[in-house]
Amino acid sequence: MTPEIYLSSPHLGERELQYVQEAFSSNWIAPLGPHVDGFEQDLCATTGASYAAALSSGTAALHLALVLLGVGSGDEVMCQSFTFAASANPILYQGATPIFIDSETTTWNICPDTLETALKDRIARGKRPKAVIVVHLYGMPARMAEILDICQRYEIPLIEDAAEALGSAYQGKPCGTLGKLAVLSFNGNKIITTSGGGALLSNDEALIKKARFLATQARDPAPHYEHSVIGYNYRMSNVCAAIGRGQLAVLETRVAQRRANFEHYVKRLKPLPGVDFQPEPDGFFSNRWLSCITVDPELSDGVTREDIRLALAEQRIEARPLWKPMHQQPVFVRAPFYGSGVSERLFENGLCIPSGSNLTTGQLNKIMACIEETFSLPQDQRLPSQTA
User: Whole-model pTM?
Assistant: First the structure.
């Protein structure tokens, strides 16, 4: 059954249409074009990054980051376990092995202490990892000062997966500017969208120049098609970039709208027994891409996140469990994992609830009323599937 209220739907305006019409009227439909150049410049102006490559997806950006850092067959890459699969899949594209690291409770992101423990152990085994991938989960920045210090001491480059964190900041510095390379996503459910698309950011001009070269099938300068290395078809189209330019112009407003949604949820739902929210420590600024709750069954009179999810689904309201950790995924069953179960507990008890910047007051009230009603019902009056 199609939801009536989506978890995070696109939010477009007239400016995007104007840019797209400009692309059509100038006949710049194919990949590359003036809007691609303009979008890259706009991304740099917005984030403070020195250089950007507009690409077909965030996954493409992460894959290129690994290629640029020389990750290959037999190498190891440290990766946050509590994330979407796209954070880890490109490691396998390169024939490397992901080493999954657990989260900590203050941000839900990669645990610096566990990261260092894992690094020491891998090095002792004779396997110095080629890179560390940190994710700013649901828009919440990771504990970057500690993570950067560890990466610098062990001389391992940091890839910043900021796919969910455009508009977020750590200690006043925009996410996407904190690692050697950073990844953005403009998928349809992100805070701004180009329908599909992503970007690779860096302060190293040579890396971004090489990324653009590789992303356009690695065509050598020649009047014919000459290829000395393997390339990819990863560049963003001029039409998608046109949408992105219009979206980027309202980023600040979209962040404010999503943060307002989060505050509405906290004010009304936090008094419910056992309900809590993703923290935002001092000095951390989340775009609140998704509003996420956790439900402790020991404090909630038996209400679980699955009770809430199913009750919302009954009202045609989309909600999803938090990411299932990568070390629990069948495809990564043989990958090493370091941790104490934080990400597993978050997955078991956590839920993403509708967070779109285009949610109406009426929709927000409907969502919150449904959750409140779930807590008010005796256990034997909940949906049959909820009590199974």
Answer: 0.94
